[in-house]
Amino acid sequence: MSDTCYYELLGVSKDVDEKALKSAFRKKAMQYHPDRNPDDASAEAMFKEVSSAYECLSDPQKRAAYNQYGRAGYEQGGMGSAGGGGGFGGQRPEDVFGDIFADFFGGRQSGGGRGGATRGSDLRYDYSITLEEAFSGKQAEIEIPTTETCDPCHGTGAAKGYSPETCGTCGGAGRVRAQQGFFTMERTCGACQGRGTVIKKPCGKCGGRGNVHAKRKLDINIPAGIEDGQRIRLQGEGEAGTMGGPKGDLYIFVSIEEHELFERDGPNLYARAPVPFCKAALGGDIEMPTISGGRARVSIPEGAQTGKRMRLKGKGMPSLRSAVAGDLYVELFVETPRNLSAKQKELLREFSESCDEDTNPEHRGFISRVKSFFDASADAE
Question: Which residues contribute to the annotated binding site for Zn(2+)?
Answer without folding.
Answer: 150, 153, 167, 170, 189, 192, 203, 206
